[in-house]
Design brief:
Number of helices: 1
Helix content: under 10%
């Protein structure tokens, strides 16, 4: 993922479907343009976020908008849209036209921003309504409606729903790069949402008996480092002092009778009792629990494996 500036990072997302079948083509009758709203399709006044001239310019009257209703969806739904003002900062409302629970008032500026409204409207019909479009106008692009507690990256559609498969990251056959008797797993990572699910990054032998994991737990903002040898827990180190949707630098050290968890330059857990694996046991790394479950959905800037148990000074420098 290259959005947000700075260094690119791995973006690992779950399977999602964009239920809005015309995500950027607002010329379709699929979209209701209310009285008082006029549109210029595929405007050349500004590039859309994907770098093409396929955004729509809407001029309103301050009290009307554009909407799509009656999309079949149940439970919590994430509605999102990219908006940009024609001039200055303007206020636009975002809500659900079917059964509005929440109405968000958005500050739309001359830079593209993605806005989202996530809620359960209590019905099986849901949608999105961009309302109170001002006389000065806005640009609109990239609507997404997904059954989810948080929005994921944009999935373009053109006449039908589109499903993006789950991202999976695994590399095996790298036992020569891993020291099973001592070492460090270091990750700079952030969760996509604090949605109370486990999201793991694991070194293992491909089974649930031998592994070392760093993960966000099913308890809010809880970071855990765990090692299991031959099916027996050897260390379980945790902290709840960090916000998991922010990038955190996390390292777990393993060595016989010397386990430690470091986060952002601070040692947050130690265990001075326990064994490690025999030689050449750990052979793969994956963004899950090692056997395909508890997938890591989030962002990863760095992932490193060290073949020695680093010193406290080295671990402090690594995670700072």
């Amino acid at each position: 993922d290259y959005t947000g500036g700075g260094c690119p990072h791995i973006l690992a997302e779950p399977q999602r479907t964009n239920l809005a079948t015309y995500s950027s083509d607002f010329s379709q009758s699929y979209w209701t343009k209310q009285s008082g709203v006029t549109a210029t399709y595929n405007t050349t006044e500004t590039l859309s976020p994907d770098g093409t001239y396929n955004a729509t310019k809407f001029i309103g009257n301050g009290s009307s908008g554009v909407l799509k209703s009656s999309i079949s969806a149940t439970g919590v739904v994430a509605r999102s849209v990219y908006l940009k003002s024609v001039t200055g900062t303007v206020n636009v409302k975002l809500k659900d036209p079917n059964a509005t629970v929440t109405t968000l008032t958005l500050d739309v500026t001359t830079e593209w921003q993605r806005f989202d409204l996530t809620e359960d409207n209590g019905t099986s019909a849901q949608g999105i309504w961009i309302d109170d479009i001002p006389v000065s106008g806005i640009y609109m692009w990239g609507v997404q409606i997904e059954e989810s507690s948080y929005p994921t990256s944009y999935i373009p559609t053109s006449g039908s729903t589109v499903t993006r498969n789950q991202d999976q990251f695994t590399r095996d056959g790298i036992g020569s790069l891993i020291n099973s008797t001592e070492g460090v797993l270091f990750v700079e990572m952030a969760a996509l949402s604090d949605d109370l699910t486990r999201r793991k990054i694991t070194i293992s032998d491909g089974t649930s008996s031998n592994f070392c994991s760093l993960y966000f737990d099913s308890i809010s903002n809880k970071i855990i480092g765990r090692t299991t040898v031959g099916g027996v827990l050897q260390s379980f180190l945790s902290t709840s002092s960090y916000t998991e949707i922010n990038f955190n630098k996390i390292a777990i050290k393993w060595k016989e009778n010397d386990f430690a968890l470091w986060v952002n330059g601070t040692e947050v857990g130690v265990d001075s009792s326990g064994v490690t694996w025999g030689s050449a046991v750990l052979t793969e790394i994956s963004l899950d629990n090692g056997v395909g479950g508890e997938s890591f959905y989030g962002k990863v800037k760095q992932l490193q494996v060290y073949k020695t148990a680093l010193t406290d000074v080295q671990l402090a420098a690594l995670t700072s």
